[in-house]
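Hi, can you check this record?
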Amino acid sequence: MLRNFSIVTVLCLTMCLGACSNPKETINLAQFDQQIRALNWFSAGSPNTDVEKVMPFDDAYLSRRHALLENLDYTELSRENKHTYAYLKIQQRYPERFLIWPAQINVLESAVKHFSQQEIDAWLSLAKLTLQTGRESKILLSRIEKAQILSYLESTSYNSKAARELAHYLHTYNTRSGIGLYQHPNGKEWYQSKINYYTDGVYAPYELADMLSQTTQKVSEPIRLNWQANEELISQPMALNLLGDKCEPVAGMNWRDLFINIRKTVLECGTVLSKEQLSVAATLAEVDIGVHMFAWSQQQAMHRLQSRLVIDEAQAYALLKNIVFFPATTLVYLPHFKRL
């Protein structure tokens, strides 16, 4: 009798739990695109009119992003979007929760349009706290990232105690010694995932570095560039800057690439680039893998850029910032380097 009662109880509980649990909320690609853009309102690829009221990489943001990726109907995605989806899932493992201010974006300038001072100050205080806790996990800003975020804080008209405290903390903040991803915990694996994503292949770093070195050595004379070092050089990947307005960008799922599928965009119209432009891309790719995988110093990277390109120090530094802020993106041109 007691045994039968126990069985019935278990069955009733199981049925109740099954009935009470909510089914997974599946969303299609169009819904995902709209919601992920609203979540990443601070990205230049997102419309300012649609804002989800969370700040970058706080707990609410991380939870919401995870839910969107989990709920996206994977079965309806094209091969290209499945490739991006897998990459975005991998990116969740890495240290955004400790480095919540993306250095390539003036988050503060955008936030004042949509958030209250209380909400912004709470995020600025969180930015300081996460930098402190990140140190315990050996996750630190580079000197280039630190300088860029400080420039936002020191040029803004937004004046609050939280902003001043973050600026003061950054002035005393000791950065990591290098500027590449290799110094983060699992940083080389993180960079390898980017190599795989932007090349749509799997290349051993030393093999790739050798290929790039052979490519750049084919160029006998330094390439002259006719452009100025300006904010545009840090606001979007040089892989896109090189295309200019010659190509229609293909929509993508990654906020870091301004919701542009860089690889597919280059694949479809990369042939419009001249040999000189491809030489620039090859030089940037060579420095990129040197910085992020092989521990090239800032001085070493600047020297390589200025030895391959006819640029001054300000231009070289702007290009180096682009490499730091958008790792591996110029590797999308790898198939086109055969033309050099």
Notes: The chain has three domains: 25-93, 110-176, 182-339. DSSP finds 16 helices and two strands in the chain. The two ends are 84 Å apart (CA to CA).
